Amino acid sequence: MTNWPPPTSLRTCVDSVASLIGSTDVNRRSMDHDEEVMLAVLHEEFTALLDRDYEADLERSVDIDLRRWRRRAVLRRVGEAAVGPIRRFL
Q1: Which residues neighbour 10 within 8 Å (Cβ) at sequence distance 6 or greater?
Q2: Which regions of the chain does DSSP assign to beta strands (E)?
Q3: What is the rounded CA–CA span in Å between residue 44 and residue 49?
Q4: Rounded to an integer, what distance in angstroms lies between the CA atom of residue 69 and that of residue 2?
């Protein structure tokens, strides 16, 4: 279990015993358009493993700096603008 959850998984710890793993968002778009999944796990050791993974993710994370964001590549900006009209469906 050392590689769980994989880097693309979403995870929320409720407390030291319960964990919610999944993609569910509590908003109108998620409820109306998206197919969401959520797994609730009530297990102290499992939650502790997820907490350790979360702390490791924080160590590897990079802050989004406004100056760096404004200097992002032109090709990336074009791609962002191109999907703008359909963004709510993605």
Answers
A1: 21, 22, 23
A2: 11-13, 18-22, 38-42
A3: 9
A4: 33
Tokens encoding 46:
């499992």
Give yes or no for a contact between 21 and 77, defined as CB atoms under 8 angstroms apart.
no
What does each of the 90 residues of the chain score in pLDDT, given as a tens digit? 445 545 555 556 567 888 888 776 666 766 677 777 788 899 999 888 888 888 888 888 888 889 999 999 999 999 999 998 887 776
**Cα distance between residue 24 and residue 31, in whole Å:** 9
- Adjacent-strand bridge partners of 51: none
Interatomic CA distance for residues 38 and 24, integer angstroms: 6
Tokens representing residue 79 in the block: 């791609």
Q: What is the pTM of this model?
A: 0.54
